[in-house]
Amino acid sequence: MESYALLLAATLSAGTVLAIAALGLLINEKAGIVNLGAEGMMLCAAIAGFATVVHTGNDWLGFAAGMGAGALLAAIFGVLVIWLNTNQYATGLALSLFGAGFSAFAGIKYVQEKLPERPQFSLPLLGDIPLAGPALFRQHPMVYFGVALALGLIWFLYRSRTGLVLRSVGESPESAHALGYPVRRIRLAAVVAGGALCGLAGAYISVIYTPLWVEGMVAGKGWIALALTTFATWRPARVLLGAYLFGGVTMLQFHLQGMGVDIPSQFLTMLPYLATIVVLALISRNPAWIRANMPASLGKPFYPGS
């Protein structure tokens, strides 16, 4: 039973990376912008956060640096696609390629660096509960932040005036513009906020989840987070559940190896990506259902004068 408690704990930690990044991308897409650059933003944020903690010894400054790096790259992406009307998909792919190359270059001297001793967290009394304590109540605060973020987004998108305006921009930017809303600025704010959350997820990987720096350490998590928004049909609660599902698949490979299951390690390593493909293939069988839930202007440029 203890091994299953450890598996659940690892699942929550792995799922947190995907949840925070996917919720950030969800904000982008609710405003009608598709950002395929999540992988690159997360990589740059990972090295920014790791380098900051190496030099300062403060994890929270590392998270702030990661968020700043993600927000900066997202702002550049936003200006290109919102004001200069470049293709969203091509610009996002370029951002991913840039992030992969730049992070590898900037991180060369940090490959052998080690972080200070990692603190252990435990909620008073709850952390001592047998089985449930180690699984649920000895997590890093960022794990609980991921849950709070999903709940906060549910309220923001469906209960607040600002969230309703954001959704209206994603559904019909022309109508929102006719009502006097600054569509471009709203979209840019959504893109920057989404980039900051992707940056936070990247910093969490290098500062807490691993914690170390190696080239390409995000290892496709940005693409899985992007797929999660579609898998969840653009609903924050489903994003959170999907993130834990994929986190569990990721951790299952290590659990099975620890149990001595005779399965080639290469097959176990590809499980998360295989699960992503299978889920997207199943969802794609009903395109009408996707269209009913997808923001109507997703991926479409907006020209205020037209």
Notes on the structure:
This is ABC transporter permease. It comes from Variovorax terrae. Pfam families: BPD_transp_2. This protein has 306 residues and is an all-alpha fold. The chain has one domain: ABC transporter involved in vitamin B12 uptake, BtuC (Orthogonal Bundle), CATH 1.10.3470. The chain is built from 14 helices and no strands. It has helices spanning 2-30, 38-56, 59-83, 88-106, 132-136, 141-159, 161-171, 173-178, 183-209, 221-231, 236-258, 265-269, 271-283, 287-293. The longest helix is centred in the first third of the chain and has 29 residues, at 2-30. The N and C termini lie far apart (63 Å).
List the helices and strands and how they pair.
Layout: H1 2-30, H2 38-56, H3 59-83, H4 88-106, H5 132-136, H6 141-159, H7 161-171, H8 173-178, H9 183-209, H10 221-231, H11 236-258, H12 265-269, H13 271-283, H14 287-293
Helix pairs in contact: 1-6, 1-9, 1-10, 1-11, 2-3, 2-4, 2-9, 2-10, 3-4, 3-9, 6-7, 6-11, 10-11, 10-13, 11-13
Membrane topology: Multi-pass membrane protein
Keywords: Cell membrane, Membrane, Transmembrane, Transmembrane helix
Organism: Variovorax terrae
